[in-house]
Design a protein that fits this description.
Largest sheet: 5 strands, parallel
Shape: globular
Helix content: 40-55%
Distance between the termini: 54 Å
Number of strands: 5
Oligomer: single chain
Radius of gyration: 19 Å
């Protein structure tokens, strides 16, 4: 009971250890951002392993509907990182710049995103507003199609759920935001997730450099090796290209219709011939 009562207090960014004291004085403030199911956990894991940050102060869940969102962001302290799923807007970008907050943005193949999202909404998050709708659909194939093309408001009873293409379009401008460091899930997941250990280390080093931190090469390699672990409750698989095990010809056709151009813009395909 006491631990539960103390939890919100302990989340408040004041230093209790030498590490936290150092972070509070000289470390950057960081927002971790992504389209849902694109890998915020990887970046949160990375920052938790960096000695310049205080993991106890971190929290996840910022969305456009978060009450007093801009105030929450401007109250981020040095050594603190927060994460969420925030569409780009000029107003938001200006707030982050004024507050001197560094932004890490992670992207993932949108086809893998919809597969992961389908599983998450159907089987893992019973409190999500879309859970009951996904659960009542007759098959995983139907659920995957809903994640791709969106859901009409009349079927949800409140507001429509946008297609994957519409969602991607709202996040896409982060890739050209001057104060934002963008990384690919596929480059950060490493060997355990079907990627490359060399590429993983390269991206870890790039992120650390962007944040203005200084760590020995041996320490960075050790951190990179600890970044992804299969027992994580956040990743169902974390595998690159898992969409190929789930997409039917109908799913491919629907995806190309709503997000084919986005897939090309993001560099995951050269054309629609996949």
């Amino acid at each position: 009971m006491l631990k539960k009562q103390l939890k919100p207090i302990l989340k408040y960014p004041f230093p209790l250890t030498v590490r936290e004291a150092r972070a509070y004085v000289s470390s950057p403030k960081v927002l971790i951002n992504s389209l849902p199911k694109s890998g915020t956990f990887l970046l949160r894991r990375l920052l938790s392993l960096l000695p310049q940050f205080a993991p106890r102060w971190s929290y996840h869940g910022l969305v456009a509907e978060t009450p007093n969102l801009f105030d929450r962001l401007t109250n981020i302290q040095k050594g603190q990182y927060v994460s969420g799923h925030l569409y780009w807007s000029q107003a938001l970008a200006d707030v982050l710049e004024t507050a001197n907050i560094s932004t890490l943005f992670i992207i993932r193949d949108p086809r893998d995103v919809v597969v992961s999202l389908t599983n998450y909404l159907t089987y893992r998050n019973k409190n999500h507003r879309l859970h009951s709708y996904f659960k009542q659909l007759g098959s995983d194939s139907e659920r995957l199609m809903a994640a791709i093309v969106g859901i009409d408001a009349c079927l949800l009873g409140d507001r429509r759920e946008e297609s994957i293409g519409e969602h991607v379009a709202c996040f896409y401008p982060w890739l050209s935001e001057k104060r934002c460091c963008s990384v690919r899930f596929e480059d950060l997941i490493g060997y355990s997730g079907g990627g490359s250990s060399e590429k993983q280390l390269e991206n870890v080093c790039a992120i650390v450099d962007y944040l203005g931190l200084d760590l020995p090469a041996a320490r960075l390699k050790k951190i990179s090796n600890r970044l992804f672990f299969q027992s994580s409750t956040t990743f169902r698989k974390g595998q690159i290209g898992d969409w190929q095990n789930h997409f039917s010809p109908a799913h491919k056709q629907a995806f190309k219709a709503v997000a084919g151009k986005a897939l090309i813009q993001l560099g995951y395909e050269k054309d629609d011939s996949w």
